[in-house]
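Hi support team,

I'm filing this because I wasn't sure whether my run with F0G finished correctly. The job status page said complete, but I'd like someone to confirm that the output block is well-formed before I use it downstream. Pasting the exact inputs I used:
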Amino acid sequence: MRWRGVIEQYREYLSVTDKTPVITLNEGNTPFVLCNNLARAINPEIELYLKFEGSNPTGSFKDRGMTMAISKAVEAGSNAVICASTGNTSASAAAYGARAGIKVFVIIPEGKIAMGKLAQAMIHQAVVIQVQGNFDEALTIVKSISGEYPVTMVNSINPYRLEGQMSGAFEVCDQINGYPDYHFLPVGNAGNITAYWMGYKEFYKRGKITGLPKMMGFQAAGAAPIVLGHVVEKPSTIATAIRIGNPASWKSAVVAASESKGEINMVTDEEILEAYKMLASNEGIFCEAASAASVAGVIKKNKEGLFTKGDKVVCTLTGHGLKDTEMAINLSQKPVTVKAEKGEVLRVLGY
Ligand code: F0G
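And here is everything the job wrote out:
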């Protein structure tokens, strides 16, 4: 059967009616990949799965929430939406807004978003405003504007975003035919960990699963307000997607971690980049740096002896590596340039 996106797939769990115009790019149904190579390198006793959200239409998990947020905005008669973003939310809002035929305003931190994401917002004809500040400052402005003017905010504070993002947890349960022992994911504005936990609890309540995973959220060490217990005024990390010092869903992320007996922890940029490279070279999976914080978290917790034999561990890889080709190129061996002659090529190949 043709996959029709997360609203049609999980309609019974979402706040939609027959009157809701469904604005979809057929998001969801993303690959759920058993990663034995990576497990062998980290801990051969665990079953390690990656949920590759880079396969969504705009290349990140944001599409799951954006289909709901834009559909509900259109249903309510809104003709303009606004968001602050480290890049992926703006890319997704721009695409879904284009499909809905409404105006999209995106506010981003100048110079701190990956070029692929900026390109997406621009080509979908969003009005893009770069602020000389960080994401947290942009979000404060967006909240204020959406409170005063007829424009719908589509950041994850919008409850429909989180509802849609619950579908990530639903799919994991459907794909693993049960529930994992641990679910690792990167934490930025903390909406996704909140949404996954809501999703797992919803499936549990309805008897679709018989237990719940421990939620393991990982911030970048230079942008780890939840771990440190205070706002970080000047967050700093190479993982620009999660360069956030005052997460909007801070409290609910803490609740997700504590209710599930998981935790919010942090990994350094070095640990993130190591995981990013391992994913690409050992498993053929190209995610963005922020996404690799989840796998870096698995590596860190494994060293601390967290896992027992047979544990099912899921990592959400939140976005596609192609969003930021500069990062990949900077971290990789440069191509060799030779004359267009067979002998020259063979010399380099070592034959
Ligand atoms: N990974 C990626 C690739 C992201 O883009 C984000 C958030 C996260 C992880 C963290 O998710 O915020 O729900 O905790 N990106 C937002 C944006 C902030 O504007 O695109 P979160």
